[in-house]
Amino acid sequence: MTEDGSIFQRIDELVGEEHALRAKLAAREITAEEEHARLKTLAAELDRCWDLLRQRRAKREYGEDPTTAQPRPTEVVEKYLN
């Protein structure tokens, strides 16, 4: 993901999957445990996408090349405080 647009596209895909999971749970196509496990994974991936966007914006703001921003590991991003 080297462009902001592709990151936003990925975020949209992940949010769409979240909505689909909730619909499947409501339709009893999956269990609550299955939904929860996948939602946890999706939330972590969304956090990584938002973190990458923040990195890119910060680099732009300070005159650096935003394409040098790199996705950080889930373990790092998940430890940030809101």
Summarize the helices and strands and which ones pair or pack:
Blueprint: H1 4-26, H2 32-61, H3 74-77
Protein name: DUF2630 family protein
Organism: Kribbella deserti
InterPro entries: Uncharacterised_Rv0898c
Describe the structure in your own words.
InterPro entries: Uncharacterised_Rv0898c (IPR020311). It holds the Pfam family DUF2630. Residues 60-82 are annotated as: Disordered. The chain has three helices and no strands. By secondary structure, the protein is an all-alpha fold. The protein has one domain (4-77). Helix 1 (4-26) runs antiparallel to helix 2. It starts with a helix and ends in a 5-residue tail after the last helix. The model has no long low-confidence stretch (mean pLDDT 93).
Into which percentage range does the β-strand content fall? under 5%
User: H/E element string?
Assistant: HHH
Average predicted confidence as pLDDT: 93
Q: Considering DSSP H and I runs of 4 or more, what fraction of the residues is helical?
A: 55-70%
Query: What is the number of strand segments?
Result: 0
Helix count from the secondary structure assignment: 3
Structural class, by secondary structure, is mainly alpha
- Rounded to the nearest angstrom, the radius of gyration is 15 Å
Shape annotation: elongated
How many structural domains in the coordinates? 1
Largest sheet: none
Q: Report low-confidence residues grouped into runs of 5 or more.
A: none
Ends: how far apart?
Answer: 24 Å
Protein name: DUF2630 family protein
Pfam family, one: DUF2630
Organism: Kribbella deserti
Region (Disordered): 60-82
